[in-house]
Amino acid sequence: MEICKKRSVGQFSAAPYLATLVNCMVWTLYGLPMVHPHSILVVTINGSGCVIEIIFVTLFLIYSDPKKRLKVALWLLVELIFITALTLVTLTTVHTLKKRSAIVGATCILFNIMMYASPLAIMKLVITTKSVEYMPFYISLASFGNGVAWTTYALIRFDPFITIPNGLGTLFAVAQLILYATYYKSTKQQIAARKANGEVDLSQVVVASGGQQSKLNN
Fold this sequence. Notes:
It is found in: Endomembrane system. Pfam families: MtN3_slv. Keywords: Membrane, Repeat, Sugar transport, Transmembrane, Transmembrane helix, Transport. InterPro entries: SWEET (IPR047664), SWEET_rpt (IPR004316). This protein is mostly helical. The protein folds into 2 domains: 1-93; 116-200, Up-down Bundle (Monooxygenase), CATH 1.20.1280. The chain is built from 9 helices and no strands. The protein is globular.
């Protein structure tokens, strides 16, 4: 909502959304009957996740500056090529469910850890600026809930491919929530100070100047 309102992504990073998208795509492949049978929850939840993340990535493609937009588009293309290649190789060259589950499951572990670790750059920014302005609380909270839920589900079914990455992901999410609690007050103080001094975010300046330039050109 903030991105749409400002019509700019500002310092928000596309990395967590791109990482989550490829993670959801790989897990959707893992849950297919011809790869890992009886995993309908894995398919439906991660399939829905793909749709949600595509919406977020689309916002970055619309509201980013040309340089960042190109970078996001290239990463998205790489992800689509990768998941297509993985699907074709798995379904055409591997002929047993056990081996398919092992190959795709190992890939899932890698990308699941990458997804949970993707906010590390933002966490560094939070520590440097002592502000959580660009680390949305609800995304961190959702990551924590997601990690706990999937870890619990995996322990019930005893699926190590789901347990390992989501257990680690829960720890990453806890670290984000601790940072949020630590720098929440200082963030409010910084925002209040900017408003008191009549300052605005850089993204707002860019949008405003762009609008003025457009009027001049007309």
